[in-house]
Amino acid sequence: MKLVLTLLGVVLLIVAAVYFLVPADQLPGFFPGHETGLARVRIKHGIASGVLGLVLLGGGVWMRRR
After folding, report:
1. pTM value?
2. What CA–CA distances, in Å, run from 16 to 19, 39, 63?
3. Mind spelling out the 3-state secondary structure of 2-40?
């Protein structure tokens, strides 16, 4: 369970970086927020995935201590 939480947290942090660095029209088609012709980044999606990634990483670290 610890490994799963940690890996999901890392993956979500990578997804958050993609949301902050790539415009909406260049996002992969399976990402929520992909919109053709929109040249701005998806800040809210990036914040949400980043916060959730940090929470999952924190949960993984907390479980390791127990």
Report:
1. 0.87
2. 5, 17, 24
3. HHHHHHHHHHHHHHHHHHHHCCHHHCCCCCCCCCCCCCC
d(CA 60, CA 50): 15
- Helix, strand, coil shares, percent, the chain, to 5: 70, 0, 30
Q: Around Cβ 1, how many Cβ atoms within 10 Å?
A: 8
End-to-end CA gap in the chain: 13
What angle is formed at CA 10 by the lines to CA 21 and CA 40, rounded to 5 degrees?
A: 15
Quick: pLDDT tens for 4-53: 999 999 999 999 999 999 998 888 888 888 788 888 888 999 999 999 99
Report pLDDT for 56.
96
